[in-house]
Amino acid sequence: MLITNSWFGPVIDKLNFLSLWVRRPQSMGAIAPSSHNLASAIAREVDYNLPGMVVELGAGTGSITAALIENASDPGQIVVVEREASLCRLLRKRFPKIHVIRGDARELKRLIARADIGPVKAVVSGLPLLNMARQQRSEILDQCFAIMSPEGVMVQFTYGSVAPLPRSVARQSGIAGERAGWVLRNLPPAAIWRYSRDETADGAPFH
């Protein structure tokens, strides 16, 4: 059961995150929510002037969600897909104007279609891709780009020193990626990556 007292929000978020991490460390990826610095940097990678929705995967307690809402002209543009039921309840209470869908990112296309949401201009992912098997990462990547318009981008952050998606996995899906920057003021420090459709025949190298 998650604690929701707003007076101690940041502390409670960390306790909730730690509790879930202890139970399912592979699915959480971190022991604490993203910092404000990281959340703001990720949110700035989205072009809010483009038409369409922004889908966030694995929102946790909503650190990045709050930054997306702050940058968007309409909170109704934000869609969260979260697998953990207790976190979905927390997110719906905390952000009543956004769409919260409970489900697995590997079924993203079906979930978005069933909710009659679209078009999608960006996917922001906090999923621990480096903890996943290659096939699972490929499935999630394919699902993300299946719901996006041609100019859509996927923004993924990672705590690892390597790309969250191996070059071979991205190329197999016709995707190219580049590291958009580092955020050192986060626990632990994080890298932000941008992925988009690869317009070259052989795939573009990662930077």
Task: Please write out the topology.
Blueprint: H1 9-23, H2 25-28, H3 36-43, E1 53-57, H4 63-71, E2 78-82, H5 85-94, E3 99-102, H6 108-114, E4 120-125, H7 134-147, E5 148-158, H8 167-172, E6 175-183, E7 190-197
Parallel strand pairs: 1-2, 1-4, 2-3, 4-5
Antiparallel strand pairs: 5-7, 6-7
Helix pairs in contact: 3-4
Structure description:
It is a single chain. The termini are far apart. With 207 residues, the chain is of the alpha/beta class. β1 (53-57), α4 and β2 (78-82) form a beta-alpha-beta unit. The protein has helices at residues 9-23, 25-28, 36-43, 63-71, 85-94, 108-114, 134-147, 167-172; strands spanning 53-57, 78-82, 99-102, 120-125, 148-158, 175-183, 190-197. Mean pLDDT is 86; it is low at 1-9 and 201-207. It is globular and about 40 Å long. The protein has one domain (6-197): 3-Layer(aba) Sandwich (Rossmann fold), CATH 3.40.50. α3 crosses α4. Strands 3-2-1-4-5-7-6 form a seven-stranded mixed β-sheet. The chain has eight helices and seven strands, in the order αααβαβαβαβαβαββ.
Tell me the structural class: alpha/beta
Strand content: 15-25%
Count of beta strands: 7
- SSE run: HHHEHEHEHEHEHEE
Largest pleated sheet:
7 strands, mixed
Q: Helix segment count?
A: 8
Shape: globular
Poorly predicted ranges (pLDDT <50, ≥5 residues)? 1-9, 201-207
What is the CATH fold-level name? Rossmann fold
Placed side by side, the strands forming the largest sheet appear as 3-2-1-4-5-7-6
Q: Briefly, what CATH class?
A: Alpha Beta
Distance between the termini: 42 Å
In CATH terms, the superfamily is Vaccinia Virus protein VP39
Structural domains: how many: 1
Supply the CATH architecture.
3-Layer(aba) Sandwich
Q: What oligomeric assembly is this protein in?
A: single chain
What does the radius of gyration come to? Answer: 16 Å
